[in-house]
Amino acid sequence: VRLIISKQIIQMAKKVREEVEEEVEQHEVVTKKSKKAAKEEIVDKKADKKKKKEKKKEKKEKKKEVEEEEEEKEEEEDEEVEPAPEPKTPTAHSSSSSSSSSTPTISTEDNFNKFRVYVGNLSYSADDNYIKRAFGECGKIVSIEPVIDKETGRFYGT
């Protein structure tokens, strides 16, 4: 009887051991699958981030292109503006007001077209001759009053 009971206990122990081994194997398979799934999830997240960055970059590029197109349209519109009418027979005109700005003055005999123009952002090397050449097409320049630095005596360029 003892021998039979011992054999039965041994068989039961083997059976339990086999069940435990099966459970361990199943657990390992599940663990491997979950690790693989986790890795795939990480890869997917990285791919999503990359796609988002690319979309963001594309949006910025499109926005930049639109802004450049708008600037080009504005420049074209500015170029389409009619120039001021040319003065009739320009003659010398003395400026009665004293100003410390670079001011070409254009005048006609009948004082129909008389302009006082402030010109900014000029080069420091600009002089009267340069200004006369640049604005000579507009008519006769009567006077130029450049802004001079009091300390250095040089032209400001503003």
Structural commentary:
Strands 1-2 form a two-stranded antiparallel ribbon. With 158 residues, the protein is an all-alpha fold. Residues 87-101 have low confidence and may be disordered. It has two helices and two strands; from the N terminus they run H-E-E-H.
* Largest sheet data: 2 strands, antiparallel
Please tell me what the overall shape is. rod-shaped
- Quickly count the helices: 2
Quantity of strands, as a count = 2
Which structural class should the secondary elements be placed in? mainly alpha
Overall mean pLDDT? 76
User: Percent helix among the residues?
Assistant: 55-70%
Instruction: Return residue spans where pLDDT drops below 50 for at least 5 consecutive residues.
Output: 87-101
**Could you tell me the radius of gyration in angstroms?**
44 Å
Q: Reading side by side through the largest sheet, how are the strands ordered?
A: 1-2
Query: What's the SSE pattern?
Result: HEEH
Q: In angstroms, what separates the terminal alpha carbons?
A: 119 Å
% residues in beta strands: under 5%
Question: Which characteristics define this entry?
Answer:
single chain; 2 helices
Quick gist of this model?
Helix content is 55%, strand content 3%. The protein has two helices and two strands, in the order αββα. The radius of gyration is 44 Å and the shape is rod-shaped.
